[in-house]
From TrEMBL:
InterPro entries with a match to the protein in the record: Glyco_trans_2-like, Glycosyltransferase_2, Nucleotide-diphossugar_trans
Source organism per UniProt: Pseudohoeflea suaedae
Pfam families: Glycos_transf_2
Keywords: Membrane, Transferase, Transmembrane, Transmembrane helix
Matches recorded under CDD domains: DPM_DPG-synthase_like
Transmembrane portions of the chain: 235-256, 268-290
PANTHER family in the cross-refs: RFBJ PROTEIN, UNDECAPRENYL-PHOSPHATE 4-DEOXY-4-FORMAMIDO-L-ARABINOSE TRANSFERASE-RELATED
Domain Glycosyltransferase 2-like: 13-166
Domain of life from the UniProt record: Bacteria
Protein name, as recorded: Glycosyltransferase
UniProt entry tagged with the keyword Transferase: yes
Length: 353
């Protein structure tokens, strides 16, 4: 994809892999043909087959990550590799390498920090029984909790700017890492875009590493933890309302009896209801206090994110103008490429509609 839009930018293709020996060779070759200027990295996550060997033969730089889980691999990749643009995909062959060039162009032309390749039809056919329902359910839950910024929070095909990668904390350990990326972008209000792409199936003999219930439970837990960390007032308010409802259930019959007879015969029930009431008040107060703490942390994360140079812009627009020549060259050469790509994308979206 040698064009003026990404000229002089370092591009890294990141492929986290676990037992993908059957497909990784063709995937690496596909990305080398589609994006010849990119450096391709395969991070082998304790594969028991020949994934690492086939990736190396195909021309990728192979690194081993011993801690099991996609989240650990992504955290290592983001920490190790320094580039201007990062393109992350899976090594199972379900994502077309030629679509990666379009993701990169969209990242540059839209001035985004992350572009998600949403999987066309994934909520109706996820390639495995139970996954379609899970995708639809979790995407609806995400929009309810964190807003309507994404339609496919589990897509593993994404392009990132350097400022996103180097400001992303990456605390997840498994397949919930994509959910954490989406929450990070939503909370910091980072500019993102989505590009609908075809999603293929694994070739015969290649097995999925996903567990419908196991990974679903971990993702649900991650959503709860991320809500606690980023929206503590809402999180603890919901808990407070639940405990308050339980308190009222125990309290009501005792109060009814008291108003009828003037006696409190079920003292343990009354004590329990009062304890639950105090707990509800404490949870609400904790939510208010932690909300202020979370706002401070969010401001710090936003400031850290802003310390990185935006993708494609001049390195600095200082008052001294030491990069004025570079900025002028950027202004002369880039708009035509940006306009060309934006118009083609608008036409494509219009034809789909």
């Amino acid at each position: 994809m040698s064009d003026g839009l990404v000229q002089d930018l370092q591009i890294a293709v990141l492929l986290p892999c676990y037992n993908e020996g059957q497909t990784i060779g063709s995937v690496v070759k596909g990305f080398r043909e589609a994006i010849p200027e990119a450096q391709i990295y395969v991070y082998d996550n304790n594969s028991s087959d020949d994934t690492a060997l086939k990736a190396a033969i195909a021309g990728a730089t192979v690194v081993r990550e011993p801690r099991q889980g996609k989240g650990h691999v992504v955290r290592r990749m983001f920490a190790d590799i320094d580039a201007d643009i990062y393109l992350m995909a899976d090594g199972d062959g379900t994502y077309a390498p030629e679509d990666g060039a379009e993701l990169i162009r969209t990242l540059k032309s839209e001035r985004c920090d992350m572009v998600v390749g949403t999987r066309r039809g994934v909520t109706s056919d996820a390639g495995r029984r139970g996954h379609a329902f899970g995708n639809s359910l979790f995407n609806r839950l995400y929009r309810l909790l964190f807003g309507r910024g994404f339609t496919d929070i589990f897509s593993g095909y994404r392009a990132f700017s350097r400022r996103f990668v180097k400001s992303f904390p990456a605390v997840s350990g498994g397949f919930e890492i994509e959910t954490e990326m989406s929450v990070h972008a939503s909370m910091l209000k980072i500019p993102v875009a989505e590009l609908e792409l075809d999603y293929g199936r694994r070739p015969e003999g290649s097995e999925s590493k996903l567990s419908t219930f196991g990974d679903g439970g971990r993702i649900l837990w991650m959503l709860a933890m991320l809500m606690k960390e980023t929206r503590p007032f809402s999180f603890f308010s919901y808990l407070s309302l639940g405990v308050l409802a339980a308190s009222m259930i125990f309290m009501t019959p005792v109060l009814v009896e008291y108003f009828e007879t003037g006696l409190v015969r079920r003292m343990p029930t009354w004590v329990l209801s009062m304890a639950l009431l105090m707990m509800a008040l404490m949870l609400f107060a904790a939510g208010m206090i932690l909300d202020s703490v979370a706002r401070g942390r969010m401001e710090q994360k936003r400031l850290h994110y802003m310390t990185f140079t935006p993708l494609g812009g001049p390195r600095a627009l200082s008052s001294a103008g030491e990069h004025a020549g570079e900025a002028g060259q950027f202004a002369e050469t880039e708009p035509a490429e940006l306009a060309k790509h934006t118009v083609s994308r608008l036409k494509r979206n219009k034809s789909k509609a």
